[in-house]
Design brief:
The chain is mostly helical. It folds into two domains: 90 residues, no CATH class; 43 residues, no CATH class. It is built from four helices and three strands; from the N terminus they run ααααβββ. The chain has a three-stranded mixed β-sheet with strand order 1-3-2, with no helix packed on it.
Length: 153
């Protein structure tokens, strides 16, 4: 019997189920650990006990968007207790601001509309860049090669 596309799709579905089942068990163990730690933290915090009687948020907590004590753990608890409540954290990685791709030019781009009389300046060269758009607003001899120390003066 020759394998068909249907056999292949069944095989791939079974393989995916096996691969995805292993991390789920690990998360369950971590989740149980985090839930037990959360219960210990609540037991020692009268303020959280008052804010979340029986695990449900009081009116003020619900108004703040925290319906359960687990909502508190996701928003604040994982920051206060990073080792114990890390499971409640985000599953995604947050990139630093410097690594987020912007819709601007990758390098400064000169614009032709800017005009300036450079004769009134005593500086050897000038370079003014708009940080948001990365457009060169003003430049005079900006392409001159300089040693690195000249930028720190």
């Amino acid at each position: 019997m020759r394998p068909t596309a249907r056999h292949l799709s069944i095989f791939l579905a079974l393989a995916a189920a096996v691969v995805l089942a292993a991390p789920a068990r690990a998360l369950d163990d971590e989740g149980v650990f985090a839930k037990n730690k959360l219960a210990e933290i609540i037991a020692g915090r009268p303020d959280l006990q008052a804010a979340f009687p029986e695990g449900r948020g009081n009116a003020a907590m619900v108004a703040a968007g925290m319906n359960t004590v687990e909502d508190w753990a996701r928003r604040y608890g994982r920051k206060e207790f990073p080792n114990e409540l890390a499971w409640y954290g985000r599953a995604s990685v947050v990139l630093p601001k410097a690594l987020i791709e912007r819709n601007a030019a990758r390098a400064p781009v000169a614009i032709d509309t800017a005009a300036f009389d450079f004769s009134g300046l005593s500086a050897h060269s000038v370079l003014v860049i708009d940080a948001a758009t990365r457009k060169v607003l003003l430049s005079n001899r900006a392409d001159d090669i300089r040693s690195i120390a000249s930028i720190t003066k």
